[in-house]
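FORM 12-B: Structure-to-Sequence Request
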């Protein structure tokens, strides 16, 4: 069983660290109690970390009753980030999707004061997709223009690293929408990423430690223990994020099981790395 965090670690107003999803049954007996039912997972999770990223909303819009259940099982101060459904980001690719977005926002707003940022996660666009940086911006700009003002916080994730350049960054900065900063084989490593001018495009930073899904699934298909030592990779994020915190920039960060095999352990390790700089 993972050791519970102190109140300061769990409720930091600037640094919130958690995992991408909380539903892994492989965590029973190592992170969750051995007797925990899946319905109990989120309550136990929220005693240890201050935020989580909802993965299931990528696949379907949740029923309002389900969202209210998530809210009611977590304490005040806990925040859920959530992926925007793939029908918007992948299937319709931001075109003619206003009804879908409205339905999602109506449902997810049932989180009330537990609602954190909403992630627009886009795929990698190969040449054969017909979507280049210019076409992507033609779709993104009017979509961002039409977002409800002041009600929700959005984040944009692009996996084409050559797009992380002024046209996209300027568009996001104009709308005060953060660019998701990701640890992924296709993306710039942290040192190069943070050297890019204007990388902080919104009022907070949003970091995702994704890892190499295809690579790690050749090693394991279960997610209850660390199978790849990512300590050096994680350490490369410490100084840049510490610099943001010193500037009073809030940071949300989420580890995926595919990063090293067991996301809760990565959260624990990174918390210690950040604390050791104090």
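FORM 12-B RESPONSE
SEQUENCE OUT:
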């Amino acid at each position: 069983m993972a050791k519970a965090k102190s109140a300061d670690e769990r409720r930091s107003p600037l640094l919130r660290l958690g995992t991408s999803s909380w539903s892994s049954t492989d965590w029973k007996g190592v992170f969750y109690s051995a007797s925990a039912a899946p319905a109990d997972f989120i309550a136990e999770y929220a005693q240890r970390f201050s935020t989580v990223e909802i993965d299931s909303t990528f696949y379907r819009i949740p029923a309002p009753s389900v969202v209210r259940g998530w809210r009611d099982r977590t304490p005040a101060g806990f925040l859920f980030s959530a992926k925007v459904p793939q029908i918007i980001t992948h299937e319709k690719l931001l075109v003619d999707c206003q009804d879908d977005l409205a339905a999602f926002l109506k449902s997810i707003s049932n989180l009330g004061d537990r609602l954190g940022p909403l992630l627009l996660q886009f795929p990698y666009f190969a040449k054969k997709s017909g979507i280049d940086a210019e076409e992507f911006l033609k779709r993104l700009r009017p979509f961002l223009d039409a977002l409800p003002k002041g009600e929700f916080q959005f984040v944009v994730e692009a996996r084409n690293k050559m797009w992380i350049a002024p046209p996209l960054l300027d568009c996001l900065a104009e709308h005060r929408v953060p660019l998701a900063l990701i640890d992924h084989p296709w993306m710039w490593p942290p040192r190069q990423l943070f050297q890019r001018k204007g990388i902080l495009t919104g009022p907070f930073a949003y970091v995702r430690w994704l890892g190499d899904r295809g690579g790690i699934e050749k090693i394991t298909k279960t997610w209850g223990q660390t199978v790849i030592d990512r300590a050096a990779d994680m350490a490369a994020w410490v100084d840049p994020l510490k610099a943001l915190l010193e500037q009073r920039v809030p940071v949300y960060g989420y580890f995926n099981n595919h990063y090293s095999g067991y996301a809760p352990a990565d959260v624990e390790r990174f918390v210690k790395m950040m604390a050791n700089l104090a």
